[in-house]
Amino acid sequence: MKEFELKYGCNPNQKPSRVFMEEGELPIKILNGRPGYINLLDAFNGWQLVSELKRATGLPAATSFKHVSPAGAAVGLPLDDTLRKIYWVDDLKVTMTPLACAYARARGADRMSSFGDFISLSDPCDYATARIISREVSDGIIAPGYEPKALELLKKKKQGGYCVIEIDPAYKPAPLERKQVFGVTFEQGRNELVINDEFFANIVTENKDLPDSAKMDLAIAMITLKYTQSNSVCYAVGGQAIGIGAGQQSRIHCTRLAGQKADNWWLRQSPQVMGLQFIDKIGRADRDNAIDLYIGDDYMDVLADGVWEKTFKVKPAVFTREEKRAWLDKLHDVALGSDAFFPFGDNIERAFKSGVKYVAEPGGSVRDDNVIQSCNDHDMVMAFTGLRLFHH
Fold first, then answer.
1. CATH number given to 191-267+328-384
2. Pairing between β-strand 232-237 and β-strand 176-181 as defined by DSSP bridges
3. Which pLDDT score is estimated for 248?
4. Among candidates 116, 128, 127, 121, which has minimal Cα distance to 162?
5. Catalytic residue positions?
């Protein structure tokens, strides 16, 4: 297949629309459904991300993409009972494979943002992973292959219209990439930067203790940022991204946005949230929305009399600001990556409130000394990578 005609471009009024190869054939096979313009942007960016995560860690990887940025990304480390519950996979009657764990993490870290995602997997999709996907609202998936039972299950989604794409894992793009904006063609060399342990060798803080687990989390954060619309910041811990702030004009707004998502991820594991008693047969999206409101400032939107009964069997107590802060103080050893330098120490101060211990950023600000001092004040470890990771 040399080209594929799309229904329309980014919006229904943008016609005609197609994807095509100037030389050779497209590196994909469409096994089911009909992908759209944005679906394929998500698919190709997501495939690059999970391929890099697999090369960097040696573990199966998954990402959940929305609007050309990842909502979550993770590698296939096992899930404990708490994570199985907050990711809504504790009732699955299947053995959780490493790939299934990776997608459960990628999807579950920020369920609000992952709703209606496009999925990318580093390895052939197995049945356990397909079982998770079969229960979620999702637009499609790209992977290097599919087990027969997994493909059969995925083809049933969306009344048979679920988009399933198989990509050739041996495909290598040309070293130069082009795109057009306003009739003008832009050309640049592909970002072939390899992120590995050496990427974090230049530690500039007094504390230089960077364990292997932190190196992996920093690699996950930075590889995720490589395919996130800039400006962007990523918090990661335990083999997964837990908060991604994408496309903000201000660096501190990236840090705050990603930090709030990381906080929400941790608050969902609190006794107050784990003990919520939902009414029978509540939808998964309604459950996610209720939790998001309950842990936020607008909690009365779900706790008011005459309202809470639609969601809960028993009216929950208010999760107070003090209780939330006490729980957040238990989150430790989080890694933070930034796609460009931090211009002020306020980013570090905000990151510290979300349990950040390890930081990686390019460096090069006129206020690097201030940022380093902020890290030293909190006994953090910070590496200057010397390389920016803007993505547009």
1. 3.40.140.20
2. unpaired
3. 94
4. 116
5. 66-67, 231, 392
